[in-house]
Prior knowledge:
This protein is mainly α. The chain has one domain (26-107). It contains 5 helices and no strands.
Amino acid sequence: MRTVVVFSGLLLLLGACEGGFISPGDRWHSPRISEAYAARDACLAQRAAAETADTIDAAAAARAVAQACATETEKLVEISNRDGDAKVAANIRENSQFRAMRYVLKARGQYVI
């Protein structure tokens, strides 16, 4: 009888932890995040190719490209930052700036690491 009580207590503790790290909603949420990243990157690549004809410097071109793709970036922030953490949103926007610079340099034929 005592082992049954201990065993059932252990099951209750383990049951309380179930889903603590990964929620069932993550199964449909992860593909949406991947799609949002792909849409943002496609926008950045397309806009960067259009910016190569201009004579502005790469940093200014990257800012223009990131600004032109702000809608896709904000959709990505909305989908992936469900908790509304300002730091996460800032990191995603910073990543968009970085990737915009990379696409600009690549479109201009400059070496990209």
